Each structure stands twice: as C-alpha cells, then as structure tokens.
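Problem 12. The chain below contains 932 residues. Write out its predicted structure in token notation.
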Amino acid sequence: MLSIRVPLRRRTATLAALVLVAGGSGLFAAGGSPAAAATPAACPWVHSTAPVPTRVGQVLAKMTTAQKVQLATGSGGSSYVGFTPAIGSLCIPAMNLEDGPAGVADGMGGVTQLPAPVALASTWDTAAEQQYGALIGSEEGAKGTTVDLGPTINIDRDPRWGRAFESVGEDPYLNGRMGAADIRGVQSTGVMAQVKHLAVYNQETNRNTPSDNAVVSGKALQEIYLPAFQDSVQQGAASSMMCSYSTINGTYACQNPTIMNSALRQQFGFQGFVTSDWGATHSTAPSANAGLDQDMPGNDGYYGSALTSAVNSGQVSQATLNAMTSRVLTEMFAFGEFDQAPTGSPAQPATSAAHQSTATKLAAEGTVLLKNGGGVLPFSSAAGSIAVIGADASTSVQSAGGGSAAVNSSGTVTPLQGIQARAGSGVSVTYNDGSDSGSAASAAAAAKVAVVFVSDFESEGGDLGGIDLSSAQNNLVSAVAAANPNTVVVLNTGSAVTMPWLGSVKGVLEAWYPGQGDGTAIASLLFGDTDPSGHLPVTFPASLSQVPAHTAQQWPGSGGTVQYSEGVDVGYRYYDANHLTPLFPFGHGLSYTTFGFSDLRVSALPAGGAATVTATVTNTGSRAGADVAQLYVTQPAASGEPPRQLQGFARVDLQPGASTTVSFPLTQRGLSYYDASTSAWATSTGAYTVSVGDSDANLPLTGTLNVTAAQLGHPVTVTGPGAQEGLAGTAVSVQVAAHDTTAGQSPSFTAAGLPPGTSIAAGGLISGTPTQPGTYTVDVTARDAAGAQDTATFLWTVVPATAVPALPLVGYQGLCLDLSADNNTDSTKVEVYTCNGTNGQEWAEMSDGTVRAAGKCLDVQSAGTANGTPVQLYTCNGTGAQVWQRQANGSLRNPNSGRCLDDTGWSTTPGTQVQIWDCTGGANQVWNPQAS
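Solution.
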C-alpha cells in the first residue's frame, strides 16, 4: 500500500487498557500511601486469569453495535498509517498500524534502514530472517506501533513487478518458510505482524481496479499463490492478514469469500483478523460477509455508519459482526494489550549501533556472488589500486526501494566510503561517477581492478517497463570492461536484470537494496572478510522473452483481465518445463570456496509422518565459507506437476575440509498436488525422485522415495489451545488435545518455544509458572510410535507481574492530561488537551508513586517547589520531583514541593501546560483516572 495520511496535530502511539476505577477513587489510597493498582468490576477481563475466549466473550457481551463497528473501522486522529481509537468505557485499547516489511516506514525518523526483504530471502537462512523480523518488531515497538504491516510474501511472478524487492521470491516453499520466520521474529517483540497481501497480488499496473482481474486456476491458487499464507498461519502463528488490491477471478480480494473464508479460515485454520489494504474495500455487506474484519484507512464510506446500517437492516448479521469483533479482540488479548501500559512514541529514537551492525551483517549475508572469473575476488592488499565507478557508489546510492516499504536512513555508508575505509593506506582508491563513459574507462585503465556500481529503482505504485538496466549503465559497464580486464560489477536492483556485458567482466555481485550499511557490507565481501553466501530466490532470465508471463495477455493484461495462463509454471518451474537456460538459475550463488555433496540417503515415509532425506556437504576448498543445500522433489508423471519443486533447504557454514550432514523432513504435504478434477489435494503413489544440490541447475545427488497407498493418510491430528496470555509468576495449566485413528496408538507430546518455567507432559498438559515476560510462538507436536505426527502452533504472551494498565487522567471541564504532540522525549511539556484516546493521554500510576506515560515519568521541572513551576515528562530517575500521592479528593500531590498538579489558570484551552500550585481542592486540581 501507499501511505495515505490525514493531516493531524499529533502523532499517536499504542493505547493500553483504559481502566475504570471504581468510585473514581484512583489507584492510590487516600493519605498518599501508594497502593497496588486495582482492576474494577467494570472491566473484569483486565488482569484476568480466565482463558482468552472467555475474556473476549465478556467484552463482546458489553459492546454495542456502534462500538463493534468502531473497532472495525479505521479512524483519523493518528499519524500512524492506520488507527482504531480506544473504547475507554470497555478498557479496549487503541490499535496503531504502521508499515512495514523492511522496517519502520512512512517517513518516521530515528530508525534503521534495513536491507530489502529480497536480500533476506537470498540468505536462505530462517534464523537470519527471524532476526530481521525481531529487529523490525523492536523498532516498531519503540515507535509505539501495535501492528507491523509486514511481511510481504506474495509470489514474484514477474521481475517487472514494482514490489519484487519487498517480497521473498518466486517459490511458495521458500516464501512460506522465510515468511513464517519473519513473523516469528516480529511477534517475539510483542508487536503483531500483518501478513500481506492476500492474495494473487503480483503487479502494480491497474491495481485496485477491475482491469487488474487475475484469471487464475484453482490449481495455481492452491499450489503457488496461497501456500505461503498457509505457512504464515500454521508455522508463523500470524496475528493478522491484509487483503490485497487484486481482483481474483472477478471478485475483489477484500470481498472474496473463497480467499478469506474458505481458504484462509476454513482450510488453513486462521483465527486472527483481516484488514483491507488502504482503499481496497469496495463494498459493505459483501466485504463483511466475506470475512473482512477491518476497513482501512476507514474514510471510504464502506464501513462506519454504512456497516451499522447494514447490520440494522440485516444485510450483515449480528453474528457476523460479533465474529469480526471477536477476532480483533482475541489478538489484542493474545499480545497483552489490555494488561500493560504502552511505551514508545513516534518521536522516540528506535535505531541503535547494535541494530545497524546487525543490518550490515544481514546485507552481506544476502548478497549473491553470481560470477567470479579467474578468481578476481576477493581483492587482496596487493590489489594496489581500485577504480570505483558509478553514481550508485557515492552520489546516488540505491540502498532502498520505494513506496510503503521505503525506510529512512539513520546514516548511509556509501560503497565508496566502505571501500576506502577497508582498503587502507596501502591501496589507492579513485572514484569516477560514470556520467561520462570515456573518463570512466580512463579511470579504470589506470587501476589494477575496477568496480562498477549500477542500479535500478523499484517502488510500489508502478511496474518496470522491462528487465534491462538503462542503456547508459550498460554502456558504462561495457566501456569499463574494455579498459580493464579485471572488472567487477555490483548490482543494486530489486529483482532480475539482464547483463549484455556478462561475458566481458570478471565478477558480478547482486547486492539488492542493502540498506544503510551498504558500503560496509559490500567492502567486507569484496575484500573477503565475509564469504559470499547468498543464493538467488528468483531466476535471472537471459532476456524478457524468457519470462513465464511473456504475452501481453499475461502481463500486464488486456481487455480487463490478466491471464495467469502459465498456471503453476511460475519461476524456475517454467524454465525447467520448457527446457530454457536462464542467465542464472533459481538457487544459484557462488562462494570463495567450493563445496561437494555426497552420501544421499532417503528413509521410508511413515503413514502420516515424514520421510527423512540426508546428505553430506563438504567444504572442498581452502577457505571457510557457507553454502545452501537445497532439496527438490520430482513427482510421478501421473501427478502432472512441474519437473521439480523445492521442498527443503539448509544453510551450512564450514571450515576448509570440514563436512556436515544436512537433514530434510519430507512430509506428505511436500509430496502432494492439487487435483483440479476433485478440487482437493491428492498424493500419487509410485516413485518420487529427490535431488540435492545448491541450485535448481546443480543437483549432483538424486535418489528415490517409493510411496504406497498404505503410507498415505493423516492418522494424528493436534488441536491447538489457541492464544494464551497471563502474568509472570502465575501458574498455568493448559491441555493440548490430539486424536490418533490408528488402532493401539497413543501419541506422545513434545513442545518447542514454551515460556521459561513451563513444560509439557507426554500426555499434552502444559504446566508450570512462566518466569520471563515476552511473546512466544509455541509449537506442540504429537507423535505416535508408528511415526505419524502433527503439529499445532500458537502464541503465548507473558505480561510482567508488575504491569499496570494505563488510563486517562481526566481533569477540569473534561480535558485530559496529555503529552504535547505525543512526544516522549525529555522535557516534553505536559498539558491539558481534548481527550482523544492517544498514547500521550494514557497514564499508569505506579506503586513507587510515579505517574508514567510512554515509558517516562511526570516530572516537576528542575525539581522546583514554587507555585507555577511547569510540569513536564522526563526519564524516570527516582527523585522527589517525580513522586505523586493520590489524595482523597482526586488531586495528585507532589510531596517534594508540597503542591498539587494544577490546570494552569483553570484553563479550558487545549495545549495549556500544567503546573504545580498550592493544593486548593479546586476542580482544576482533580485528575480522575477513568475511561474517556
């Protein structure tokens, strides 16, 4: 989506629960003694030990139709790209939604510009992808975000797609596994991930119009365009989905029941909520009935009062509205939003040296060495002189893509700067911007090696006209290569490009959009400090004529339709099926060392279980390095499937001469195909060919897996317990159920990812006392003695035992105590303002006497004691200037000064800074903690 903002006076952040305090007496006892926060009967679901569904039911029973509709409709009042306001009377927190898939976007500052998602896909490393997600979640949380709008997991159907850089590649298996890892990382920080874009969103041309009607078969939907979303649910426990701008077989995605209800919810078991892409809602009742829970940004007229009317007229049933509401509330509870005060604000810096270091490391790991002729790389100190050429190296660095995935940099290291810093004084580094190919060639001829940086810009909102670099850049490379035989090209592109000069250069690196650590990352690779280990997540065609969608009817479409007539032959599947040799195959990536594959072994497939494929990978070179072992499966001819399909991968790091065994589980799902004649998944019996190597075109090991009818079926099924949430230090007991249809078999349970302090018994009972706050993705597996197994994945949030819900402090004439501009930087003025349910109006009265908002303390400026001393927000420091005692009359007294928090001059003007003043008992000194 593109960021669409409503002009406002403030940026807002996440709201925590708004708690009604019984009798308006506040959280501290009269007389000034701090007391523990109390949860009133008005909101019994706050700090409750009841199961999440029970708590959701309690809230739902109290909600009016108008309140349910409010939760379903985006609102103004926030500088986040999406916002639903708090419903204070029910302690329902607000929700702040923010891009994006490559880091905190939409123009926010103080963040880390990360490498593009396609670069992470090139790592083929789920641990790195999870680290990437956790970094995004951490920075979103620092900005007060509730929901991160990412990751993007759409299939890269064509390299001309303007958003190819922010997706994961062309293969559904790779997209699914990497997407799930990203989701786990984001959600481990307590921020919800919103997976996008459901579904069949593969071009910008004519998007969000009927002319972008994707005519796609059920087989292609099930095998290519939906599996990554299934993995995001079943392996990533994604909290939410974003429906796309696409029209799918004549129906807009955001009112498509086949996609949202049938596939997502019924087939995949998704229990979270679905939000529209911004402006992608095109109806009221059809959208709600098809499964759209939230309309964003909410100003299109389809939800809000229109939804209320549809419910009142019976076009949308109350049961449907209840289901929509319940799905949103469930995720709020699952992430502990009701039970703890918010921290973070848009003004808060989120980046750090550690984050920037991680981003640079990930950029290097995702860079792909495509060619290394004559061992031109890595450079040595004996290189003597290096000519760095191209605007992309210094004056016009292409470190990020555009649109809603564009992220501000906190300080970009250019390639020229990185090379100069790494080369040291013993190597001469010269620079030419490449604007004149003749002078660039002269600079190259004077150096021992030349490095040319070229780029292509991609952005949401527009597709590329082709897959060639500009003629000026291609001519530049050719001129430099003619002048210097040791020419290396570094590509900064979002997807595949052609290389007419490939035969004339010694080396090529695809660095994608590497983020702000660009120069440091590429220098570490050029000089061999880091071994190149990236592998392509997309095929690089030799020419545009090779791409699967090579007709105008397929791309960008004609006559109001886009024909997906290539079916399941997307990406490498098409090249293999048509015996085409691309420029570089899917999965390709070189190293500065070499690797060998041996000793392939394939175990039998147990009914309802997984076969195991193992192979040995050996570093046969003289340097330490990394490779990606890849497993491909060829189904029996009767299945009618592509020649081979990815079904496993494993990144390995090895010292020279070292070997390791890689192991791939191969489940029945990995052997199945979608039978269009029955509209169901099926598995053929017979011989399956399994192949292992390090690209689609380099598979030195092949073996056979024989499958019989007796081995098929799913005898074991696990029923997950759903989302869990509770306080640290509070004992838990959760039973997970499993069913085994095999006579005489009783499955035994294991679990991964449980909160520390808990464990699972063989019978499926999870018990113990969680000790460590956090959000955990838990995998529970039931396995019987015959090898049949099934896994359920769910979220579990542990809230700190000391957590205190936040609530507004309402003062004179109904104005709220407020942080100016929702800023939480030190010395931000505290003021009175119209109550608006923003983070800057949510205050937690702590047991230590402090009153906190956005993670900082209400503070008397300079510890002053005189009447009229201003009150501000400041880092909590334990001084008397930050202690407040709740009085019986509702005032807040600062014992250090002996004075009370005071609405200056009985002001009714929003924006007036508050002060301390002699305690008078006046209404301008009463601050009632209550729902707005």
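Discussion. The CA atoms of residues 43 and 90 lie 6 Å apart. Students who got a different answer should revisit the alignment rule from Section 12.3.
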